[in-house]
Design brief:
Blueprint lengths: L1 E4 L4 H8 L11 E7 L1 H4 L7 H7 L3 E7 L4 E7 L8 H15 L1 H5 L3 H11 L3 H6 L6 E5 L3 E6 L4 H7 L2 H13 L3 E7 L6 E4 L2 E3 L5 E7 H6 L6 E4 L1
Antiparallel strand pairs: 1-4, 2-3, 3-4, 5-6, 6-11, 7-10, 8-11, 9-10
């Protein structure tokens, strides 16, 4: 599961997009679930590998403009943990090909949400923050995420004015938080990483980081778990 919570930032994102959402038939409130199989089986833009990867997945959107609440959750099951690095690398590309914003909203709503999401980190950032800067490794009893390109973040920011605006807004209106959680079949022996949370049975571990820290000190996303 990968989640993106932009609650508390909707008004600012709308202002960046130049949209005034809500009222009448607008985007006041919405709860939607997309089953990827409804689109993968007939898609002409996805490769066979991408169709197989996405078919059993889903995307959930919850939005309530009255309380400035908006959350996305992507659920994607996999059969072998060794598939995880490929999933993290390829998922965002496949989702962008599917044009999920258009499928979540129709008519004027699609134009409004689309304009707002273009100003946000977007599907690629939600699914795999700073992918190009890191290497995810899966061993028999180890998972590690290592920073391999420390200049990637500077290059990313310099070429994307929308991300620059989000970074500047975060301290004023609330930072975007990203959480990575692993649920393992055995107890965790050792771990290291920022803002780690270990369950009482030592089988579930989460690492949480904010968008601002990710840009200012990307090494905060590094972690290592042995089990």
């Amino acid at each position: 599961n990968m989640s993106m919570d932009i609650s508390g930032m909707m008004q600012q994102m709308q202002a960046l997009a130049g949209n005034s959402m809500g009222g009448g038939d607008g985007l006041d409130k919405k709860d939607t679930v997309i089953q990827f199989k409804d689109y993968t089986d007939t898609s002409s833009v996805l490769s066979l590998e991408e169709k197989a990867m996405l078919r059993d997945g889903s995307l959930t959107l919850h939005m309530d403009q009255a309380i400035d609440d908006m959350k996305f959750t992507i659920s994607l099951p996999f059969k072998n943990i060794k598939q995880l690095p490929e999933l993290k690398q390829e998922l965002a590309i496949a989702m962008d090909k599917m044009k999920l914003t258009d499928k979540l909203m129709k008519g004027e709503d699609a134009d409004q949400l689309g304009g707002m999401m273009q100003q946000s980190p977007g599907a690629s950032m939600a699914a795999n923050p700073l992918e190009g800067a890191f290497s995810l490794s899966i061993g028999k009893n180890m998972i590690s995420n290592k920073l391999t390109d420390s200049s990637f973040v500077d290059r990313l920011l310099s070429g994307n004015t929308n991300l620059q605006a989000m970074k500047q807004m975060a301290p004023m209106f609330g930072d975007l938080k990203y959480k990575t959680t692993y649920v393992l079949p055995v107890e965790i022996k050792n771990y290291k990483g920022a803002n780690a949370e270990l369950s009482s049975d030592r089988k579930t571990i989460s690492f949480t980081s904010g968008l601002t820290d990710m840009f200012d000190k990307p090494a905060v996303l590094e972690y290592e778990v042995t089990f």
